[in-house]
Structure formats: C-alpha cells, structure tokens
Design brief:
- The protein is mainly alpha-helical.
- 65% of the residues lie in helices and 0% in strands.
- The protein contains 14 helices and no strands.
- It has helices at residues 10-41, 52-71, 75-88, 97-113, 120-132, 142-145, 153-158, 170-181, 189-209, 213-219, 221-230, 241-258, 267-276, 279-284.
- Helix 12 (241-258) packs across helix 13.
- The chain is globular and about 55 Å long.
- The mean pLDDT is 88.
Length: 293
C-alpha cells in the first residue's frame, strides 16, 4: 500500500481504522434486528435463520484475516474491508459460495492493486456481486418479498427498505458519518460533497420524470454507505481540501446519473472504482499550499 501523505504516524492510521470499526457497529446491530430478530418475531424465519446476518459478518472477518495473512498485510485493514463488503451483500447470498467468492475477489483485488492504484473495496465489491449474480440474487428479505410490511418514506430513511445486509439505512449511515467525523483524519468532505451532488441530481430527475424511484434512491442508505465507507478510501482518494470536494461532487453526480440504468445498490461502486483510477488528478486541479486530511 502507499504511504498516506496526510498521516504522519502509524498510530494515526490505526486510530482511523479503529474509528471505522466503531462506526459500523450501529449499522451491524440494526441489520441483525431487521434481517434477523424482526423476521423471527413475525414468524417469517426459524430461530436458526435469525443468526444468518451474524454468520456473514463472522465469516467475512475470518476471510479478511486470512487474505491479510497470505498477503502479509495489515490484518485490521483487511478485516475492515471484508466487514464493509459483507454489509453490502444480500441476505439471500449463498452461504457456502460467499466465503469462497469473497476470498477469491479480495485476494485478486489485493494482488492487482500492487500493480495499479484503484479503490480496492469498490473493485472487490464488483467482482463479488458479478460472481454471486451467477445464482438467483435479490436484495429482498423474506418480509419484503411477500410485502408483509407497508413501508413508507420514513421507514426507508430508517432502513427498512430493500438493500444490503447493513447498508440501506440512511439514518444509521448518518450516525456512522458523525462518529467518523470526530476523527480528524477522516475525509468527511468527500461524502458531504457526494451526497450534495447526488441530492441535486435526484431531485431534478424526480421533477423531470415524476418517477418516485428517484426519491426512494435519495432515501436509500445504500448510496450513502458507499460514500461514507468506500469513497473515503485511505489510499486512493484525494487529500487536499479542493481535491476532496471535486472528487466527491463527481462521484455523487455520476452515481445519480448511472442509477438511471443501474440499481442504486451497484451504481456508486462502479463510479467510485472508475473515478479512483484518476484520483491524483483531483489534487492537482488547484495548486495546494498544504496537505489536509
């Protein structure tokens, strides 16, 4: 991995990684409730199936640890990567296929990144979903498939809408963002700028088309989860203030536009991967006087 120009000590990076883990906790807990406890309480799944979300998180941690061990890389970082990826998958993911696909995808991405800089998380996410799409793949849990609950916009905002295991709650993504913002090394400008440009485009698309799908996309946490946890990559995102602003605006703009053709669960990762290939350019748009986190 590259050295981080805005982190001067190893403990700074460790502090930031630790904060990412803490920020994930509210999302993981809500995920267990929505995709486990709530379904069990309504007699839609068995007691054993209630723990499926926990299975995916535990197995992801183990895979991340294994890939880091084989690559002789920072184990905390790869465990974090794997856990973030687990948050974005469907509750219907094949439980036997998932650890294999995650391991292969993460290992390939880590190998290729040694030769070319790109957003490892976004690339791995794309490989992961492409492989899982070979099977029937839906983001709906049991309750959503049979329309057991009548969800409104407030429910979607809280996280009861369709989405990844722990990535579809806008409310808890905001909580995670606040937690991360307390760490001075977190690139909070990127998700702020991304969210702003995506918001503008979605509002315009709604008024032009009158299609409520754009309002649902605006409230779906899947969009913001990608901005908060993936777009702010430690290594392949700008580190100057203006670079981060423009980078974020571009990601939000093209994510919103791409969502016209691609589901909101996938669009931000495609955009983040492509834009990350050119991230050094954003730091050179306006000459920098000093480095900023």
């Amino acid at each position: 991995m590259n050295k981080l120009p805005y982190l001067h000590y190893g403990k700074d990076k460790n502090s930031l990684v630790k904060t990412y883990f803490i920020a994930l906790i509210p999302l993981l807990l809500f995920s267990f409730y929505k995709n486990g406890i709530l379904l069990y309480q309504n007699k839609l799944i068995s007691f054993i199936d209630m723990f499926i979300p926990l299975y995916f998180y535990i197995i992801s941690v183990l895979v991340g640890f294994l890939v880091a061990h084989l690559n002789k890389s920072d184990k905390r970082e790869y465990v974090l990567y794997a856990l973030i990826l687990a948050c974005t998958i469907s509750i219907n993911t094949n439980m036997l296929l998932y650890p294999i696909v995650l391991f292969v995808s993460l290992f390939i991405a880590s190998f290729l990144q040694k030769k070319k800089e790109f957003n490892l998380l976004a690339f791995t996410r794309i490989l992961l979903i492409l492989a899982l799409l070979l099977n029937s793949y839906s983001y709906m849990n049991v309750a959503e498939k049979i329309e057991a609950f009548n969800y409104n916009y407030l429910d979607i905002f809280i996280g009861y809408g369709v989405g990844g295991l722990a990535s579809n709650s806008l409310f808890f993504c905001f909580i995670a963002f606040l937690i991360l913002s307390f760490n001075k090394f977190y690139k909070k400008v990127i998700p702020i700028a991304s969210s702003f440009s995506a918001f503008i485009v979605f509002i315009l698309l709604f008024f032009i088309t009158k299609n409520e799908i754009y309002l649902e996309n605006l409230l779906n946490g899947s969009l913001y989860f990608a901005f908060v946890f993936v777009g702010t990559d430690l290594y392949v995102s700008p580190y100057t203030k203006m670079g981060k602003i423009i980078y974020g605006l571009v990601i939000g703009l093209f994510t919103a536009l791409l969502s016209i053709f691609v589901p909101i669960y996938e669009a931000p990762y495609l955009v983040i991967l492509l834009v990350s290939l050119f991230f050094p350019i954003f730091d050179k748009i306006i000459p920098k006087k000093r480095l900023q986190a």
